[in-house]
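Handout, section B. The chain below has 298 residues.
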Amino acid sequence: MQFFLVLTDNLIDLKISIIIPVLNEEKFIECNLISLMNQTYSFTELIIVDDGSSDKTVNIVKKLISSNSSISLIENSEISYNDSGKKIINAFYRGYSKLSKQWDIICKFDSDLVFPENYLEKLVLKFKKNKNIGIFGGLLKIQKNNMWTIESVSNDDHVRGPIKAYSKDCYNSINGLKAVDGWDILDEFIAMYYGFEVFVDKQLYVKHLRPTGGIHVKNNSYKKGSVFYFLGYDFVLSLLACLKLSYTQRINFFYVYIGYLVPFMLLKEKYVNKQQSKFIRDYRWSKVLKIFTKFNNK
């Protein structure tokens, strides 16, 4: 207890604001909020943004937050069935516009997560220890056969979209989050372009109550492939990325790669400028070469 008191006194100057977009989350939202309300290091402000829920989500939230002045709810009466990146980030910004307190770290969390009680404490410790960290997150675990195992749908150096945390300097440098599909990888590339570190704490686990496979459907394959074009990938790099994506997420490779080719042929405007595009390609190719080198050395 004495250690904890010293620790929190040392970190008290770092203020955390959290925004959680929700849509029909009656099965998960209570566990999610309780895990955040019981943290060893308290957030300064938490805003829940309802995106048109038609179930009991809003009522559950209202009951939970009635006695906590640090948590507020933004309601939206229009029913939504869209879970695209664009809509999620638009909901995030509705919450962002209502922030009433100063913050040093801003988090965009999903509502189907259960956080360990020391998650925010460890998060703050990392930002405090390494000023160069711009984006931080732990690893997500899903339940399989009554065991919690790491959800392996992306590289373990990527902070997943459900658990993003940004320093103020990083957030301002990347000009906030872009309301586009692929926002949760675009932010990391731009952060690294500006010299920030993306840090995944591989010893910090968060329970993901709804596995990613349950919300990623095949008709999103085209959209996923298009992201590679908008990030500036070349033909070969996008081919490799599409192959990996089709394997890890069990989606149709043909539709994924068509998703890349169509905006390429239509000369669509990319998310990034030429310098950022080159940085992204160079970074991705360095990762590919590292894998091949490791494989050849076996």
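Note. The chain has a mean pLDDT of 90. Compare this with the example in section A.
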